[in-house]
Amino acid sequence: MSVQVLLKQIPKVDRVLGWPEIAPLLEQFPRSELLRAIRTCLDRFREQLITGDSQSAPEPHLIVAVVRDELSRRKRMNLQPVINGTGVVIHTNLGRSPLASLAEEAIHSVSQGYSNLEYNLANGDRGGRTTHVEGLIRELTGAEVALVVNNNAAAVMLALSTLAVNREVIVSRGELVEIGGSFRIPDVMRHSGATLVEVGATNRTHVSDYHAALSDSTALLLKVHASNFAIVGFTAEVTLDELVIIGRERGIPVMFDAGSGCLVDLTPHGIRGEPTVSQLLAQGADIVTFSGDKLLGGPQAGIIAGRRDLLEPMKRHPLMRAFRADKLSLAALEATLRLYRDEYLALREVPTLRMLTMTRDELSRWAGLIIRRLKRLIPAEVMFYKQKGESSAGGGSVPLLQLPTTLIEIRIQDVSPSQIEAALRRAATPVIGRIHQNRFLLDVRTIADRDILALTASIREAVTALTRKDQ
User: Fold this and answer.
1) Residue 399 has pLDDT above 80, yes or no
2) Domains identified in the chain and CATH numbers
C-alpha cells in the first residue's frame, strides 16, 4: 500500500474530536488545548508514514492513547522533580545539591508574601539584602566581610572587575580551568577587564615563576582549586602558603577560587583534598570565592569571603546589582548556613553531606529496605538484585573520589536495559539511572526516603508502558 493511500486513512481533526473516547477529555482540558494535542499527534503519525518509521495507519485506540499522553505531557511542568539513581551526588544536570528540609521551609515561608529583604526592622529604614547571611558566613569562616552573588563565576568576575581592571592577575597555567558549560577562567578574566598573566607549565609551576612575573601592574595573585579535575604524575604546584608569602612580601592580595566551597572538614569521612573556607582564610588568603550549591549543599549562589578593605569596594560596584541573589536563594542559603553552626547537625540534615558520608553498611541496608518495599507493590516479572559499585561526588568536587556503594539492578524478562532506562526516564516522575555492562542500575546513595513512593509508581508505570508496547 502506497504512502499516499496510508496518509488518507489518517482521520481529520474534527472526526477525532467527535469520537466518544475523546469526549471525556473535553471535560478535563480546554477545547483549544485538546485540538492542539490532536493535531500534534496526527502530524506525528503522518511523519512516521512519510519517513518509513511506520508501515500502517494508526488504529483509533492508538490515536486516543497518544492524544491522552500528549495532553499529560503538555500539562506537566518542563522543570520537574526527578529521582536521581545515578550515584552522582552533586549532579549538575539534575540540579546539583538537593536542599535541606529547613531550607525548603524557608523558601516556602518567604515566597508566600512580603519579606524584609531590603528593610531594616530594627530601625525602620532600608537595609541590605545580603545582610541576612553575611553574619553567618563571617561566623562560619572567620572572614572580616562576606558577600553573596548569584553564582561562583559571578563572584570571581565581581572580584576581578573591582580589584584588577586594567591590571595584571597572575595564575598558574595548570589552574586555567573550565568551570563548566564552556565557561573558562581566562574568559571570565578577559571580560572582567583584568589582564591574565600565565606562569609555569600545565603540570609544573614553581615559586620562581611567580617572582619572575611580578610587576608594578600586578593586582592579584590568583590560585584556582582543582575541584573538577586532577593532574597526576610529574607535577609541582605552588601552595597557598607559598603564594601568601609572595603576596605579603610585595603587598599584593592573594585570591583563592575554592570552587565547590566546603565548610566542614570531610577528611574523617574519607574525603580528602577539599580544604574548608576557614582553613584557606586562616592560611592567609585575602579573598576566597566559592559556590553555595556544591559541597556546601545549599542553593545556587556565589560567596565571597575575606578582607574588609578588599570586599567593601565590591559592594559598591555596578556589577553587584547585576549579580545579586534573589530572595528565595538567600532564604535557602541562610537556613542551610544555620545548620552549619552544629557540624553534626549539618552532616545529618544537609542532604549532600549526608549522602557523601554514608557508609557501605548503611547503603547495603538501605538498598535491602528499598527492594523489600518495591517487591510488595511491583509486578512479579520485575526482579531486583543488589550489586556492589561506586558513587562519585560530581558537581566539580573531589574529581578522583570513588565512594563504595550498593546498586540495585532492575531486570524485566524480555526487556533490554536500554528499554528500561528509557521507560523510567519518561515516567511521570522520571527516574534517572545508569547502564553498566548491559545492566540497568540504580545507586541507592542518591535515592532518598521521600523518593520511594514515586519510585514505585514510576516503575509500575514503566512496566505498563513496556508491556503495552510489546503487545
Assistant:
1) no
2) 3-75 (no CATH), 83-93+355-470 (3.90.1150.180), 101-349 (3.40.640.10)
